[in-house]
Amino acid sequence: MIEARIQPTFDDWRTRARTLVAANIAPEEVIWTHDTDAPLLPGWRNCTSIDAAETSAPHNTAYVPPAFLSIAAQVAMHRDSSRWGLLYRILHRLSHGERHLLEISIDPDVHHLLAMAARVRRDLHKMHAFVRFRRVAREGVAHYIAFHRPDHLILPAAAPWFARRFAIMQWTIFTPDASATWNARTLNFGHGAGSSGIEDDGLEELWRTYYANIFNPARVKVRAMKKEMPVRHWATLPETGIIKQLLREAPGRVEQMMKATPNRKSPAPMPAADAAAFIPQSHSLKVLAEAIQKCRGCDLYCNATQAIFGEGPADAVTMLVGEQPGDNEDLAGRPFVGPAGQLLDACLDEAGIDRSLCYVTNAVKHFKFEQRGPRRIHAKPNAREISACRPWLRAETDRIEPWIIIALGATAAQSMMGPQFRVTKSHGQVFAGTPWGPGFVATIHPSALLRIPDPARREGAREMFVADLKIAAKQIERSAR
Ligand code: URA
User: Fold this and answer.
1) Of residues 148, 155, 192, 185, the one with CA closest to residue 169
2) What distance lies between CA 336 and its chain's CA centroid?
3) Is residue 98 classed exposed, middle or buried when 0-12, 13-18 and 19+ CB atoms within 10 A define those classes?
């Protein structure tokens, strides 16, 4: 028998496995063991770049399909210590005449391998969804910390995603096994820790408000909810504290929603509670833009010409969110093309923000108006319409993953940050680590400027608007560094 003593990392296993295969050592002859005195999760490099783990092919002559290497890198993160033996058995079979082994999903080894890889991928997905940062001050600088309990050893693979997503923040994610710290430039790994000592800050309340806003009482499926948000993560999620209360209130809220739905000339007989049911699986902007034309999440589609979806590059760093399309936009099929859009363009220009690099959208996608003779007069969307449309905004932010969101006016700001958010109080302030992305700045709506009759007051408000946009521009600049 041969004892293959390795550091428990994919790289170390691969180096060792390569030598063993080249020497034609049968899997039954190898016992895989870990170094007992190895650091908890050894092999984690501190990196100045945030590239994914390397999975280049080994330099032996044995045939190894590239698909195996990427699956093996995932399985290496599984906590089960039998993974090294399984990986070696499969590698050996692949290089000894079973080239197409991975295509035989009923083979017990392959079945086991794919199931382990799927568990690791699911764990990564859950970590991306369930890490919640809290703000702490560290030597006078805002630092964000989070505690998460993954099932598997996924922190090195998960951390680069957070570094990209929350690049402008400085943060540490603790797991029981290890920690990852991002100083806005470099990712460093250290020892693990428990969750004690992580205290509530203002962000906890923001997460709760956000969750209460997106919670749809007409679509409560407790089992699906627990599957999507496994109960073991609840301890580290601020919003879970309000789930029981929301569930208790759900039947009454559905009744209220139904009573509150006014009778119109031609609405759908029973309007959907929100747009969620109309959102396709694919988050391609093209697919979303087509699907939104069929949205019946609220009644606004009845009178509008068309839904106005967002526009701009899919890799935009900046996302601008307005209230709802106006008369011009409704006819043109594009956001911010009318007078408010022209003023916005001029002010963006002054602030040094290139609109063509921004993704521009609205909190509500259909034009709401009152018909007065031949004129269609803008009407403010109500809370139900804003909330019904929020899943589209979420789908857009999920696809774009903007560094910085600029909310134009109270409708956009409150749709994203909750009804207690006040643009008058918080405009021009940078909010980091929000439920919508790493950076958020709210400011006034350009059409508010157009409505100010007094030239001096209008000019003052315009200066304030441009100053807020400049604050956002600084964040955009920082994200590019
Ligand atoms: N106002 C908005 O909020 N959005 C538009 O697209 C146009 C005007």
Assistant:
1) 185
2) 25
3) middle
147 alpha carbon – ligand 1 mean position (Å): 39
| CA separation, residue 48 to residues 187, 396, 403 (Å) | 6, 30, 20
CA 428 to chain centre: 23
Give yes or no for residue 447 CB within 6 A of ligand 1: yes
Compute the distance between CA of residue 469 and CA of residue 320 in angstroms, rounded to an integer: 11
Q: Which of 62, 246, 265, 237 is CA-nearest to residue 147?
A: 237
CA of 23 to the centre of ligand 1 (A): 68
Residue 335: CB within 6 Å of ligand 1?
yes
> Average pLDDT over the chain, rounded to whole?
84
Give the pLDDT confidence score for residue 120 in this predicted structure: 94
- Cβ–ligand 1 contact at 322 (below 6 Å): yes
Q: What is the pLDDT of residues 102-127, one digit of tens each?
A: 989 889 999 999 999 999 999 998 89
Q: Highest mean pLDDT: which of 98-102, 132-136, 231-235, 291-295?
A: 291-295
State residue 168's pLDDT score.
77
State the Cα–Cα distance between residues 385 and 219, nearest whole angstrom: 17
State residue 47's pLDDT score: 32
Task: Determine the distance separating the centroid of ligand 1 and the alpha carbon of 316, expressed in angstroms.
Answer: 19
* CA 419 to ligand 1 center in whole angstroms: 20
Q: CA–CA separation, 141 vs 460, rounded Å?
A: 32
Report the atom number in ligand 1 closest to the C-alpha of 409.
Answer: 3
The answer to whether the CB of 446 is under 6 A from ligand 1 is: no
Which pLDDT band, with edges at 50, 70 and 90, does 351 fall under? very high
What does the block give as tokens for 89? 């058995």
For the segment 85-101, the average pLDDT, to the nearest whole number, is 93
